[in-house]
Amino acid sequence: MKENINSWKDLPIGGIVDEPGTAMAYKTGDWRTLRPIHNSEKCINCLACWIYCPDSAIILKDGKVESIDLEHCKGCGICAHECPPKVKAIEMVDEADFR
Amino acid sequence: MGKTRVARTGNEAMAEAIRQINPDVVAAYPITPATEVMQIFATYVADGLVDTELVPTESEHSAMSAAIGAQVAGARTMTATSSQGLALMYEMLYIAAGLRLPLIMAEVNRALSAPINIHCDHGDTMGGRDAGWIQIFSENSQEAYDNLIQAVRIAEHSDVLLPIMVTTDGFIISHAMEDIDIYSDGEVRDFIGTYKPLQPALDYKKPITVGSIDFVDYYFEHRRALAQAMSNAKNAILEVGREFGSKFGQEYGFYEAYKLDDAEVAMVCLGSTAGTGKDAVDNLRKRGIKAGLLKVRVFRPFPAEELAARLKDVPQICVLDRSDALAATGGPLYAELLAAMFEDRADHTVINRIYGLGGRDIKVGEIEELLSSQVSAAAGGKSIDRIGYLGVRE
Amino acid sequence: MSNLKQLATRQAPLCGGHRACAGCSAPDVVRQVLMASADPVVVGSATGCLEVSTTIFPYSAWNVPFVHSAFENAGASVSGMEAAYKSLKKQGKIGDEKINFVAFGGDGGTYDIGFQSLSGAMERGHNMMYVCYDNGAYMNTGIQRSSATPRGAMTTTSPVGKVIQGKQQQRKDLTACMVAHEIPYVAQTTPAHWRDLNAKVEYAFSIEGPKFMNVLAPCRLGWGYPMELTMDMCRLAADTCFWPLYEVVEGQYKLTYTPKEKKPVEDFLKPQTRFRHLFRPENEHVIAEIQQEVDRKWERLQKLCTL
């Protein structure tokens, strides 16, 4: 899917998006004011963060939390909030600290 | 070529065409006078004569929505409706066109409410004239049958991919029996070919997103592409009409000209009134008035240049509209034809008469009277009302 | 029922980069519903937050076929797709792999403008599942009341004025309306109860015919709560019995979750700014009436489960 076109002739017929998942090219990470920091040492890989993340931003590898997709994470904090209280493997940190 | 001469009403002829087309899906809702098309077709489904999945929806809005869903999924899909039913579909008509779906509709022309009226005029079809649908009018049952078969090829033409409606006049054609030629199933199926959807939504291995939202950055380009498809439909209509002629005997174009070549006065109309008009033309010619007739078959895309060229040498023109645009400018055919003829700068008198609303009958004598009075007004240098009504109690 | 490790092996139906608000529950509903299908899915959607935020051209967040045409027609539209599938499969024009057809609509597109279309599709018996993500108002157009909006809630068309404060009517019980259609499966759940949701959807996909799921979908903007609490809102709704989790299989009611201790409805209302005015002394009776209504319906549901 081309993002920039020179002519209407370059568009797929009928306004369809002819490939899946093209939204990955759109970065919603800059919406964030709080950044989730994942601590893999504390993490018990219960995957609660993964099932509840509205932005599909919890990246798994072999059924374990590998990282957080900061290009798309909007910083809602659901992951940190849903992480079991005894585990607390995700902490929300002020995004300004990283700029 | 195998032709069978049979007696059919317009609705029966359209139902027969749909049986022969054997669409993958038909979604429809009953409405007078189109009900019968689906009623007859439902018996074909019940008797296993077609492969079609019939979706008898709970409204016309849902009929068109289900038809859109089916066509997006990859099915050749048809529907039938009329009047208020078409009006209830209006929202979805625009969407079918915008999504570039070659849906096929049998539309039986009927007046719009209020007051509610079940008889013929073209107000329903005209309400959908800017929706991006190809619109073809039929004079009689034979044309309704022939047009519906051609509609498949026109809509699915790779340069077009637009929805199409083939109309007949409610009751006048839909319920009137006449002799027509039916072609063999095999020949019809060879002619229409198989439907090959570009990117069917059912192909889950190549997932597509249909009906996405455009902001200011893409909407205009998508609509520009839609406009081009409608322009392209002109060639497709002629191409398919010629091929139909070479296969089945009757060639079709944008219009039919009747005794027009030397005409001093010509009437222009849509649909069944052309039949009445031809009788009036014959009678006028017997009286020494060189009358002619131009029946417009294709209203969308509007064949402006071609109609203007055909009428260029006719000094007196009377456009008969079976609907009122309610814009204080006459009927829609008049307005569009006038715009088309503006460029030729020829010395015409083009008048408009709105007639036949809500099924009011139009008689041969009324047309004769109208055309002869236009000729004598011109001869006597008298003025004549440009816009008016015919057959109403003023 | 699948566990999370199993679900994690499934293809993600929805990717990131969509424009739903931070903390929106609708993408969770979609992910959980679609990941419960081991077979390919084809999705249809009503116009609304979900559709708009996930399909801004040329960016689509959908990894599965997704079809939207209008607001009031998700039921009809998906019924057409299912009819196409049946027809093409019967004729051998496509393979005979099972496809699960799913329609998504918000409460506006389902309880209100799309109600007729939903009813028709269910009555016709299409093999499809309709999922309503019920956030209790027209959120996409800016939080207007719908027939799903709870009594007392403030929306932009049921504002808190000097004379009238919030929505005056009880919400429509759409789940009950769908039970009355006597379709094979009707259920109510929330995305916070993912096991419950997963079990229900897996069961629904395993049976033929029309299925309806009403899924509570908190909207942090329209409800007015901190965005990280989306799932807590679901739990409070279930624990107060404002939104009981149950299913109706072939007409047989079954509670799938019974709170250990039924919490007062205030616990659900209090964290949401849309109910803030109810806590003024002059509106105490409204909360009492809401509680009565919750109790009445909860008791009725428990009775229905014994039938």
Question: What does this protein look like?
Answer:
The complex is a heterotrimer of chains A (99), B (394) and C (307). With 99 residues, chain A is of the alpha+beta class. Chain A has two helices and four strands; from the N terminus they run E-H-E-E-H-E. In chain A, a hairpin with a 2-residue loop joins strand 2 (58-61) and strand 3 (64-68). In chain B, helix 1 (10-21) runs parallel beside helix 6, helix 6 crosses helix 8 (219-248) and helix 10 packs across helix 11 (332-342). The mean pLDDT of chain B is 97. In chain C, a hairpin with a 2-residue loop joins strand 7 and strand 8. Chain C starts with a helix and ends with a helix. An eight-stranded mixed β-sheet of chain C has the order 2-1-3-4-6-5-7-8, sandwiched between helices. In chain C, helix 4 (74-90) packs parallel to helix 6 (115-123). Chain C contains twelve helices and eight strands. Chain C has one domain: Thiamin diphosphate (ThDP)-binding fold, Pyr/PP domains (Rossmann fold, 3-Layer(aba) Sandwich). With 307 residues, chain C is α/β, with parallel strands linked by helices. Helices cover 36% and strands 13% of the residues of chain C. The longest helix of chain C has 23 residues, at 284-306. The chains are: A alpha+beta (99), B alpha/beta (394), C alpha/beta (307). Chains B and C meet through strand 3, helix 3, helix 4 and strand 9 of B and strand 1, strand 2, helix 4 and helix 6 of C.
- Total discrete domains of chain A: 1
**CATH fold label of chain C:** Rossmann fold
Spell the H/E element sequence of chain C: HHEHEHEHHEHEHEHHEEHH
Given helix and strand content, the structural type of chain C is: alpha/beta
Q: How do the helices and strands follow one another from N- to C-terminus of chain A? A: EHEEHE
Q: Identify the strand order in the major beta sheet of chain C.
A: 2-1-3-4-6-5-7-8
